[in-house]
Fold this sequence. Notes:
single chain, mainly alpha, 85% helix, elongated
Amino acid sequence: xxxxxxxxxxxxxxxxxxxxxxxxxxxxxxxxxxxxxxxxxxxxxxxxxxxxxxxxxxxxxxxxxxxxxxxxxxxxxxxxxxxxxxxxxxxxxxxxxxxxxxxxxxxxxxxxxxxxxxxxxxxxxxxxxxxxxxxxxxxxxxxxxxxxxxxxxxxxxxxxxxxxxxxxxxxxxxxxxxxxxxxxxxxxxxxxxxxxxxxxxxxxxxxxxxxxxxxxxxxxxxxxxxxxxxxxxxxxxxxxxxxxxxx
Length: 247
């Protein structure tokens, strides 16, 4: 309970520091570099996973639905699996495996080397300069990666679908848009933003929680990954349950 309250208070403190962060050129540079590492450099892996999910859904879904004479439901299935469920979650897993470890170990290294104390001693708020850019960078990257994952996965599924039932791209994507609802988009965006905040807050707090031993640095990274995975999965279950309760 204490850890949850601490993370909540830290989250509120970071939100207050985000607007002030843009006054510093160094903080803006950290934000840009965080988005570059977390989003841009993860596009290759995200592309492979997105196409793979699209292939699996088509290869397994189309023959099964054809047996039931319900092939038209493949579009709803693609939206549910790629856009609403797997897109945000797999995007979160990619960012956790790459950025959560990097941020936690980086922040822990700064604590061990007394860099955080040095910032405080010269009047620089470490929350605004160190935490806020990484928080915003990871959250924005998670949002963008989720959109990219959905678009790439749905586009890749079109190529596979041609092996079962060749059709013009306009008809295929028109059917996808017809199956897509505003609720699907909203829950997908909400999940991506929540996951981004969970990952960033977890990584930053785990990194800053070390004491003075250098052996704590890799441990902080491992703890950040485990906690971020657990937090995102729990949030995914709660948001999905809320979605089906509302619908």
